[in-house]
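fyi for ur records
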Amino acid sequence: MDLIILESPNKVRDVQKYAEALCWRVKVTATVGHLLDLPPMSEGPAIDTRTFSLEKLRPRDAGAAERVARLRLAIAEADRIIVATDPDREGEAIAAEVWQWVPLGKAWRATFEEITPSGVEKGLRAMRPELNVPAVEAALTRRIIDRLAGWHGTALVFEKLRQHRGLSAGRLQSAALRLVVERYRSHQDFRPTSTFGVRLKLRAPGGAEVFARLLDGDGTPTIFPTKAEAEALRPPRRVVVSTVDAKKKQQRPRPPFEASSWLQVACKALGISVKDATQATQALFEAGLTTYPRTDTVRVADEGIAWARAEIERRFGASYLPPTAWDHKDGGASAVQGAHEAIRPTIPHGPSEDLATRHEGQWGKAYALIETRFLASQAAARVVEETTVRFEAEGATFLTKGQVELFDGWKRLLVSDAEEETDQVAGDRPPVVNEDDHDDE
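which gave:
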């Protein structure tokens, strides 16, 4: 019998069920996070500063010691050990903790991008007989930095902020504090200045009012350093329309969520904290409803795109389905995190599953937002007509712009999305695969 070792106990039951359905004879258990840690700082740093090795790791607490004993016994009884902790640096480090107890040749590493039948099947088919050593070393390096630098910073925080004993100053908090201080100093050094522009108020024959901005000779808005200079400009008595330019444009949809965009949008759209937003995606992943949440990429598997396109056509009709799938580009995802897909719903299995049931539960609104954003990312472009009008008035040039929506496209789906980025408009062209940017004319 094989032994599959997970990180979270919340996944044990589902992975056991899916593996058995694939005719695997397995027992599934979990580490419940890290098993080993450095001894308390009261016993010294426990790190050799010449080699920077972590030779004094030991069970984190009594509970971890019990789990280590049970795991080692289960490992001794199993034919093959499949370590399937989370597919990130910390997951790889936890796998390394377990790896040392497995006899040579019996250890395999698997990762599950989603806790679904297909996700488990893919992970087991692609398992490998070695760890990702650079990821393990990165995680251990982070732990060393925390011990050698973070602990000293934390002691200072405790001394200065005695009413906040729970605060720490590790590798992340220290860098974040530095950024906050620099931003604060920049704000203190900033000296605001006022500038003034001029707009021309026009009334169309139908009664509608239009505001046109005064331009310089190079076509940029005119800026006056004082209010008096702006008010000294004499209002023109005669205004003539010089040019009218109407252009139809397409607005591409935003990509599906990755970790950072999810936090930005979820906090605004759902009114929840960063901690709750993080817990939501982790809980949905462990329940098998969404893919792995700690990702820096917007890449989506072909089967996910195919499902999204089918759902868009089923729910909204063929007019909301672009001729070809959108290919959203990453903004420089790292090689480690970029291996994961974007945050998206897992594909339902079986005709009896009702999509509406996925919106229930504590994190129902979070799931609904993830699903909506993902579907919108593959929906048809929004089409607008943008009109630019130039006016000539006694030697001065004024300009105004307006926009009319011709087709709502992906905006029909994404009605409640908080914007973490400005709308970007693409030219009057059909979707093009492998376009590098979102603003083409």
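The longest strand covers residues 240-251. thats all i got for now
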